[in-house]
Amino acid sequence: MILANGNVVCDDFVLRKCDVRVENGKIAEIGENLSGKEKIDCSGRFILPGFIDSHIHGAVGVRVSSNQEDLLKITGYEATQGVTSIFATTEASPIEEIFSQMETVKRTSEKTKGAKIVAIHAEGPFINLKKAGAMVPESILLPDKILLDKMLEKSGGMLKKMTIAPEINGGIDFIKYAAQRGVAISLGHTDADFDVAQQAFDAGATMTTHTFNAMRALNHREPGIIGAALVNPNVSCEVICDYIHIHPSIIRLIYKAKGADNMIMISDSGNAAGCDVKEFEVDGVKRYISDGVVRLEDGTIAGSAKTLYDGVKNLLKDGFAIEDVSKMASFNPAKSIGIDVETGSIKVGKCADLVVLDGNYDITYTFVNGGNVFKRENRYVI
Questions:
Q1: Beta strand 184-187 with 207-208: parallel, antiparallel or unpaired?
Q2: pLDDT tens string 282-316
Q3: Phi, psi of 264 (to 5 degrees)
Q4: Which residues contact 85 (CB under 8 A, 6 or more apart)?
Q5: Contacts of 44 (CB under 8 A, 6+ apart)
Q6: CA-to-CA dists, residue 152 to 106, 117, 147, angstroms
């Protein structure tokens, strides 16, 4: 199959008009006027690496805590949103439930339809009660290396990312251990000050979780974790680009401070993304949806009802370069856990995980491992 005449965001994140040949699930060739039997005309369209959502709790009425059959609804829906890979994200729940969720995700990853499940992101339970947000307080624990080992065992090695608050007892030592075990550490749900955050980065933490949300506020005299992250060139910042969790001007601020190389776009979506529900329960606590945001009864933000693709459209329509948006929504999440050698950019030999957008940034095709998992009506093959 050849995707012909497209505006391709190539591996160097430069936009070029060319063709992309896909064979056996891989990108086989990139060039001009490629010949082949099956061609899809992409004239006037953009060909990007598929989006990778590294922080997603659910969609279409289903959470990561659901059973295997329900998880397939998430991966199927995400493919319609241009997402080709997800990090299934757990949260602070009773520890045995977390173990069970990880086992279910592992089984589901072996037979997904639509987007691939490439990793597990454990958002908690090792976080600060003071910055719990929507997390259930009773399920928040102190860092425990034995529990981490059990998570790695139950996940079959799929636990690749973990959110932790470094200031809680044992946090820095735990970060060192987790990094040695191959888990990428992101700081979040934290009240860490500047110095503690810097110690955590020195210990091996490489990211911040939904930056500006559920963390100590930026202050000109005590810049806290946000200040530490913004000035550290080795740290990437997760950013929810729904224009609800943080103001568009703050997204611009992060972009100017970190550049496209160190921003990771996420959705932080849950049950409400992709469906018309007004309320639902998680661990017995009701959550309410209004204007694309999920809140607890007291008004605390509890996740997004928007997708990663919604954030992509927001930035593109606000004038961000498509090459930079592609990097932030695809390459950087892959790089964060070391799978950028396989996916996240358009390069010969990588997985043919691709999304095709028209001139209005509407999705026309999504391909996962070269298979067409979504096609908008009225497109044609030449």
A1: parallel
A2: 767 788 887 777 888 887 777 788 999 999 999 99
A3: -120, 110
A4: 50, 52, 53, 115, 116, 117, 118, 333, 334, 343, 353
A5: 7, 358, 359
A6: 11, 16, 9
The pLDDT assigned to 382 comes to 34
C-alpha R_g of the chain: 20
Distance CA(362)–CA(111), nearest Å, equals 28
CATH 3.20.20.140 domain span(s) along the chain: 51-336
What is the rounded average pLDDT of the residues 272-285?
A: 77
pLDDT value, residue 275: 82
Structure tokens at 293: 């945001």
Mind giving me the DSSP string for 83-130? EEEEEEEE-S--HHHHHHHHHHHHHHHTT-SSSEEEEEEEE-SSS-GG
Please provide the average confidence, as pLDDT, over all residues in the chain: 94
Q: Quick check: helix, strand or coil at residue 8?
A: strand
CA distances to 94, 144, 186, 187 from 175, rounded to whole Å, are 21, 11, 9, 10
**Which pLDDT value is given to residue 339?**
98
> Other C-beta atoms within 10 Å of 4: how many?
22
Whether cis (ω within 30° of 0) applies to the bond prior to 125 is: yes
For the domain covering 2-47+346-375, report its CATH number: 2.30.40.10
Give, in order, the Cα–Cα distances in Å from 32 to each of 6, 24, 194, 345, 380: 10, 20, 51, 19, 20
Residue 281 sits at φ, ψ, to 5 deg, of -120, 145
Q: Burial letters for 242-272: b for 16+ Cβ neighbours within 10 Å, e otherwise?
A: bbebbeeeebeebbeebebebbbbbbbbbbb
Residue 307 has a pLDDT of 96
Superfamily of domain 51-336: Metal-dependent hydrolases (3.20.20.140)
Residue 378: the pLDDT is 46
- Helix H or strand E encompassing 56: strand 51-56
Question: Rounded to 5 degrees, what angle do the CA atoms 178, 184, 186 make?
Answer: 100
How many other CB atoms sit within 10 Å of the CB of residue 41? 15
CA–CA gap between residue 221 and residue 352 (Å, rounded): 48
Give the HSE-up count for residue 49: Cα atoms under 13 Å, Cβ half-sphere.
Answer: 34
